[in-house]
C-alpha cells in the first residue's frame, strides 16, 4: 500500500546530506554505466567483425592439393598430383550433408602471374574459373550486367565479370564496360558484368575488387587445363558442420589419388567455419569479461550503499527507539530501511542506464554518417533483455545492500535507543 508519509520520510532521509547521497549513488551509477558500455562495445566489435564476413557462407572450407609426404602402394613420397573434375562428383556422391562443391582454377596469386590487357591499358589481376554457385559462397554485389550462369558453362562462353578495381584500372571514367573485350593471357573475353565486394572475412578489400571471374569450362579450354581442378570451395548444409565432414572429404580424395590414409599434409585446407567458430568463442569470452568487470564495479557501489545505510541507521538510533516505543513493528522498521536502500539503488542505476544509452546513441549517430563496411566496429548496442536483467540486479542489490543495516536497526532496544544522544 502506498504511504505518502513513508515516501516523504525516505526523501527527507536521503536529502538530509546531499553530498553523501550523491557520492553513494555514483558508485552504483558508474557500475551499471560501465557494464552497459562494455557490453555495447563488445557487441559493436562483434558486429564489425561479422560485417567483414558479409553474407559469406561461413560453413565452408577451401581445399587444394599439395605434395605427397608419405609413400603408398609403391608410389613415392614427394610426388605431386592434381584434383580432377571427376573428384567433384565423387565428393558430392560419397559425402552427404554438402550443399555446394565448387571446383576452381586460378591465374595470378599462388597460381602464377597473369597479364590482362585492354587497348593500351594492362594490369596483373587474379582470374578465377568458377561455377555460378561461387557467388553464394563468396557473395558480391553485381553493380552492372550479370554474373556467370550455367548457359555460359555449357557453351564454354568466353565471358568475364570484373571487379570495380579492374574497371578503374583498364577503363576510362565514362567508358562503357559491358560488351567490351579484355585479353587474358592472350585470349579475348567479353565483359558481361561488374561487381563490388563489401567484405569477405579478412584480407585487403581493395585487392578483392581487382579480380576477374570467368566460366570454369571456358577457363579450362582457353588455358589448356583439361580436367584439372586447382582447388575447391566446399559448403555444408545447415544441418551439418563442414568441420565434421571434412575428414570424409579427405578420405575420398586420398582413395581416388592413392594417397596414404595418414598423409594429412597431402591435402591442404582452410576451414572457414572453424575460424568463424573461434571468433564467436572470442566474443563469448569478451561478454564474460564485460559482465565480470561490470559486476565487480557494481558490487563496489552496492557495498558503498550498504556502508552508508549503516551510518544512517546509526544516526537515526534515537528516532528508531522512539518509533519502537510507540509500537512500530520490527518489519515496519526493516521495511523502511530496505525501501530507502532499494530506492537509492534503483534511481542511481537508472541514471547510469540512461547516461550509457545516450552515449551509445551518440556513437551510433556518428557511425551512421561514416562508411563502416571496412571498419572493425559497427552498431554498438545492448539487448533490451540485458537492460531488464540489469534492473533485476539493481532490485536484488538494493535488498542486499539494505539487509544488514535493516537487521541492525531492529536489534536496537527502545530503551537503549532513547538513551542515545
Automatic annotation (TrEMBL):
Record has Transferase as a keyword: no
InterPro entries for this protein: ABC3_permease_C (IPR003838), MacB_PCD (IPR025857), Macrolide_Exporter_MacB (IPR050250)
Membrane topology: Multi-pass membrane protein
Residue stretches making up the ABC3 transporter permease C-terminal domain: 292-414
Compartments reported by the entry: Cell membrane
Positions of the MacB-like periplasmic core domain: 21-249
UniProt-listed PANTHER family: ABC TRANSPORTER PERMEASE YTRF, MEMBRANE COMPONENT OF TRANSPORTER-RELATED
Keywords: Cell membrane, Membrane, Transmembrane, Transmembrane helix
Similarity comment text for this entry: Belongs to the ABC-4 integral membrane protein family.
Pfam family membership, one: FtsX
Transmembrane segments: 21-41, 288-313, 342-363, 383-404
Name of this protein: ABC transporter permease
Keyword Transit peptide: no
Organism field: Zunongwangia endophytica
